[in-house]
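dumping this here before i forget
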Amino acid sequence: MDIFSKRPVAVMLVAVPVTAISIAVLVHSLRTEGLLQWRPDHSAPVGSVRDKISDHGTHLVYVPAGASFDRKYWLMFALSPSGDALSMILKWQKVADKHAWILAASKESKNGVPFHVCLRMIEAELGAVEQKYPVDARRVIFTGLSGGAMVSHAVAKFHPHLASAVVINTGMMEESFMTEDYPSEKLAVFLASPTDFRYKEMQRDRAFLESHRWKTKWIEFPGGHTLAPDNVCEQAARWLEENLH
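structure:
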């Protein structure tokens, strides 16, 4: 059910071109970002969480119980390597309920889609969410698994005004992003697994962000290249609420 469906909206979308990156390299990186250890979880029972998810065609939105236009809410925007928006919503739903966050997840952004296209679609989806729902635009967190994490880094790099923080779940930053003019002084949480094949790259990425005055949090969990368990997601949420002002 979409509790905000009757509110009139006017969406203005601005396309910002991506420059100074190699599209061919980025597409290759997304295609080869491993999915072998990850399986989507759609196990939430019908009649519970799923009834609170609104399908807007290009993206899904989850609103915690009791939300209204009387206040603004934090937004977590989630990206899957396969465009599986439902699995990302279900993963972060407990955090959303506990902390009163709105969740959105893209159905369009996925491995194999050119990077500049992903960014254009995400900008449009986020604009639609912010127009329709009571989102605090100063507190928008991008999160992603694997290739979705790489796209989260891309948002922070090329659209820093859209992202206040990123939560990187077993994924790496494209090396071409690591430039001297990289945006500074934001927040990043790294959800890392020692047996994940991206573990060393994540350590590298953390050091790079810290060199640009980002404040970071490193949380490890067992399991390899997969979504972090719920207790790790909760640790990330608590740290963000303590540090994102």
